[in-house]
Design goal:
Elements lengths: L3 E4 L2 E4 L10 H5 L2 E9 L2 E2 L2 H14 L8 H14 L5 E8 L16 E7 L6 H6 L1 E5 L20 H12 L5 E4 L5 E4 L3 E6 L2 E4 L10 H12 L4 E3 L4 H5 L3 E6 L3 E8 L2 E2 L7 H15 L6
Parallel strand pairs: 7-8, 7-14, 11-12
Antiparallel strand pairs: 1-2, 1-6, 3-4, 3-5, 5-6, 8-9, 10-11, 10-13, 13-14, 14-15
The protein binds 4'-deoxy-4'-aminopyridoxal-5'-phosphate (PMP).
């Protein structure tokens, strides 16, 4: 049974799911995307992911050809067609095929692609012992150049930083903004625990406003843990009691070393563990309030 891909308006076998070599998504990274998770047959925060996708589309003047309810159905149908109750969904909308010039007006129809796959988290040992990360020299793009709030197909900024992390033997890398403040990691948001309080960079630090980040902030509020969005510099992380990252694929993952500095006691801390447990409970919750 071949993997089924949703292409534009229907599910087709993988070998039939093709885009043009003239697609501006391929030629210029002109398009938007989302990564979603399904737990026990239910997509986690589907509406929030769709809202972010359509906002990204709006920001680049890309009119997504499907209405949100039809897109939601495409996500659910693609998971079902591939028998995935616990899976990862990649939703891609490209600008479509056009001429070799940049002009987005000279393209035909945006292409909608929904791919469902099994999920591969970071190796388990990292969740148990924590990640070592380094700061990349590559800065997060300034909003005036390209807003990090747009989840676009142009991820080279993040890939450049990821390469630096990998070259240093780390699977994630911290990115700073042009002011030298902490922004986020290449594919995850960052949190620190300082004096019992949770802190995380605000959207204007130059971050993607993560859906896992928002969920963790809600969980912290429910647990009576004070959480503040505030500008942070590396010193704040180096001297934190705990640090962790959040992302759809990663969920909540502890960080125990940054740039050779051991964070806190060098093992995942109690606030990180509590929020990890609460996050796992949240994604498995069956009510509409999750
Ligand atoms: N920052 C970046 C740059 C990302 O690509 C992601 C993953 N989508 C995140 C943060 C985390 O966002 P989310 O929790 O919505 O997956």
């Amino acid at each position: 049974m071949p993997r089924m891909i949703f292409m534009n308006d229907s599910l087709v076998p993988e070998h039939e799911a093709k885009v043009s070599v003239f697609d501006h998504g391929l030629l210029y990274g002109d398009g938007v995307f989302e990564g979603l998770r399904s737990y026990g047959g239910r997509v986690f925060r589907l509406d929030a992911h769709l809202d972010r996708l359509y906002a990204s589309g709006r920001a680049i003047c890309l009119a997504i050809p499907l209405a949100k309810p039809a897109m939601a159905k495409a996500v659910v149908d693609t998971l079902a067609a591939n028998n995935l109750a616990d899976g990862y969904v990649r939703l891609v909308v490209t600008r479509g095929a056009g001429s070799l010039g940049l002009d987005p007006n000279k393209t035909s129809h945006p292409q909608v692609i929904v791919i469902a796959d099994t999920i591969s988290l970071y190796p388990r040992e990292y969740y148990e012992r924590g990640l070592r990360i380094v700061t990349a020299a590559t800065q997060r793009t300034q909003s005036a150049a390209l807003s990090p709030r747009i989840k676009s197909l142009n991820y080279l900024n993040n890939i450049m930083a990821k390469l630096e992390g990998l070259q240093a033997g780390c699977i994630e890398a911290l990115m700073l903004n042009h002011k030298g403040e902490v922004a986020e990691c290449t594919g995850d948001n960052v949190f620190a625990v300082r004096q019992g309080r949770l802190v995380t960079p605000p959207p204007d630090a130059g971050i993607l406003e993560g859906i896992t980040r928002a969920a963790v902030m809600e969980l912290a509020a429910a647990a009576g843990i004070d959480c503040r969005e505030m500008a942070l510099v590396r010193h704040d992380l180096y001297t934190a009691d705990e640090c962790f990252l959040t992302g759809t694929a990663a969920e909540v993952i502890p960080v125990v070393e940054i740039d050779g500095r051991v964070i806190g006691s060098g093992v995942p801390g109690p606030v990180t563990k509590r929020l990890t447990d609460d996050f796992h409970a949240l994604v498995r919750q069956t009510g509409a309030d999750r």
